[in-house]
Please model this.
Amino acid sequence: MAEQVKVTLVKSAAHRLPKQRAIVKSLGLNKVSSSVVLPDNAQTRGAIFKIAHLVTVEEAK
Model:
């Protein structure tokens, strides 16, 4: 597995559950098409799982 993952917001978090909006913000994603590189650990994977329908995930190089 990669040590880091690149997470990109592909759908807006507007009109989503407050918990989902909070997760998007805590991951550091602001606008659609914004990306962030995060460590690949259980905490990050759990957050990504909660908002999987809003983001794409790929290995960071």
